[in-house]
Protein: Chemosensory protein
Organism: Gryllus longicercus
Amino acid sequence: MKTLVFLCLAVATVMAVEKYPDQWDNYPIDDVLKNDRVLVVYIKCALQDTPCSNKEAELLHQYLPEAIRTGCERCTDKQKELARYVIRFLREHKPQEWTSIVNKYDPTGEFRAKYEHFLKA
């Protein structure tokens, strides 16, 4: 019986979707988006044009490819809200930078339907 309980717990643990770290959940994102100098640092880090200069930028660089591929499947609700906000901001105010990010992480358009669906949610 103990073995069965242990096995069930092990399967449940493996099947649970691990969320991304929550450092971004309360990040003052408007401070980044409204400061071109800072925003460029984050975008260059995301595009691997320059080394990432802080922990938050490094986390973005680390998790962005997977988030794009999966439609932010591992994002917390707050991260999903922030991601939608940032993407909409970039599309409206920095379309070239958004296009560069899309071309970098989804060059064939394979994941476009997923993140377009994500944006509409």
Summary: The two ends are 43 Å apart (CA to CA). Residues 20-120 form a domain with the Antennal chemosensory protein a6 fold (CATH 1.10.2080.10). Helices lie at 2-15, 29-33, 36-46, 55-70, 77-93, 95-105, 112-120. DSSP finds seven helices and no strands in the chain.
